[in-house]
Amino acid sequence: MERVHVQRFSRSFAALAPAAFVEQVLAKRLKARWLLIGEDFRFGAKRVGDLALLKKLGERHGFESKPCRR
């Protein structure tokens, strides 16, 4: 692991739509290239984003997502 990013959980952060989270946080701020995702992973406001959406958005922003297998 090269870097760890700690994000304060605030109302504005919690309100980010899944696409905004991917674009603003993963793509622009963290410049993600590869993500390993836990089995109950959800993201975006009201936890509406899932692995399928993350993979789709990742293709658009140049990163790959894989589920963690036990």
- Mind summarizing the main beta sheet? 2 strands, parallel
User: What structural category characterises the helix and strand content?
Assistant: alpha+beta
Q: Return residue spans where pLDDT drops below 50 for at least 5 consecutive residues.
A: none
Tally of strands = 2
Helix residue percentage:
25-40%
Query: How many DSSP H or I helices?
Result: 3
Q: Quaternary arrangement of the chains shown? A: single chain
> SSE string, helix = H, strand = E?
HHEHE
- Report the portion of residues in β strands: 5-15%
Spatial shape: globular
Give the key terms:
single chain, 70 residues, alpha+beta, two-stranded parallel ribbon, 3 helices, 39% helix
Description:
- This protein is α+β, with helices and mostly antiparallel strands and 70 residues long.
- It has helices at residues 11-14, 18-29, 51-61; strands at 34-37, 64-67.
- A two-stranded parallel ribbon has the order 1-2.
- Strand 1, helix 3 (51-61) and strand 2 (64-67) form a beta-alpha-beta unit.
SSE blueprint:
Blueprint: H1 11-14, H2 18-29, E1 34-37, H3 51-61, E2 64-67
Parallel strand pairs: 1-2
Helix pairs in contact: 2-3
Short description:
The protein is of the alpha+beta class. It has helices spanning 11-14, 18-29, 51-61; strands spanning 34-37, 64-67.
